[in-house]
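hiii, so i know i said id send this last week but things got crazy w the move. better late than never?? heres the sequnce for the chain we talked about at the cafe, plus the structure i predicted for it. fair warning i was half asleep when i ran it
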Amino acid sequence: MSEPIIIVGAGQAGIKAAETLRLKGFDGEIQLIGDESWPPYQRPPLSKAYLKGELSEDRLFLKAADYFAGAGIGLMTGTRIAAVDPAAHAVTLTDGRSMSWSKLLLATGTRARIVPLPGADLEGVFTLRGIDDTRHVAAALQTAESVAIIGGGYIGMEFAAVARAMGKAVTVIEAQDRILKRSVAPEISQFFQDLHAGHGVRLVLGEGVARIAGADRAEGVELANGEKVVADIVLVAAGAVPVTELAEGAGLAVERGIVVDEACRTSVPDIFAAGDCTVFPSRRYGRRIGLESVQNASDQGKAAALSMLGEETAYDPVPWFWSDQYDVKLQIAGLAQGYDRTELAGDPGEGRFALRYFSGDTLLAVDAVNDPRSHMMARKELAAIGQALAA
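okay and structure toks below
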């Protein structure tokens, strides 16, 4: 019997790959290895419905508890890989055990970006990436009266909306001159800045952080200008970084993420990668891109499984994302980087509109605010552009 397929990373990409292998008739051994103590679960609700208590913990899980035994998929939780040996086709666990593989999939995802601030290790300072993080934050919110959030990206702003809905005093500190600057145009940033301000959130823009204040626990944030923002808890929401250490140690090409081709193959034979930890070629955008989204993790996990089975695949998706803040849903199709003009459809004052991004005459992306029809039309339009480029 051949050695098993090992999947490192029991998140959205890893479970989709394992599921696809079984659905496509692979009858060999599959080992799904995750470093968290939880079975595969969804992450987007952690900063929204789950944090608010609107979604029970059991509904986070991607598969029923009996799925893995029924599908013949070995699930190893709370297990860390120390090293990958491509020549020996083996992984070494941190407890010293060795496991052989015929093919290996790295679906290691991302981790919260650590900001090297004085006071970052104080009690009451949190990041928000996993179930355990959310549990700790939710417990702290029960008694906190004020919250400081370092970072005005999606996680930070979603958390701000939840905290305000709970009646907390909220201050968001963003070093850039507007929130969400890395992903949206000024018009979208302004809409969400007005939305949060209207709900009572204080936005501190264009200002750095000197340290997190406090002795034994966090008492607030000291800004670079000397001002102290008083807070009972501090959330550091400075983005995420791909987890690439295993890939680097194994000699795989890494460039802002694990480099893969359109078939999810890495630079080393028999090793594949999928999900948030990767960068892959996009004909649509003419460069390698990395996507941190449920859509990418699930679809690329499936593509990687097909590739491991020898089926022809060319993964080049239309990226899409979403963010829920208060009663507003932002849906994004495509990537706006490199745009030189925008077109507005609808009225931001009415709370429903879409912003289209172009490079010359080529549509790059569409941001739809409370406008699901525009979002779905954009995905179809961007898919057609990609098909034309592939023809």
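btw The radius of gyration is 22 Å. thought thatd interest u
miss u guys!!
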